[in-house]
Amino acid sequence: MAEKSVKRRPRTMEVSQVINRGGSSTSAADAKKERIFNLRVPDEVVEKVDALRKARIGQVSRNTWILEAIQEKIERGS
After folding, report:
1. Tens-of-pLDDT digits for all 78 residues of the chain?
2. Cα dist. 37→8, 29, 40 in Å?
3. What is the pTM of this model?
């Protein structure tokens, strides 16, 4: 008869060793570079953007919505 494989739960010490071992963080060279800047937008435009964001399924931040709009404009080549 074949032996049944029994999985044991890891001991607290083993779990602590894994947690404390940590991992490597993303190096600066691997991270995408971003620029932060201020953007002045008329109130009417912000209200339209917010209405469009709220009409979408799920929550989309204003920043994400603007980045998507920029990407769409770039892809159109206009």
Report:
1. 667 777 777 677 777 777 777 776 666 666 788 899 899 999 999 999 999 999 999 999 999 999 999 999 999 996
2. 53, 22, 10
3. 0.56
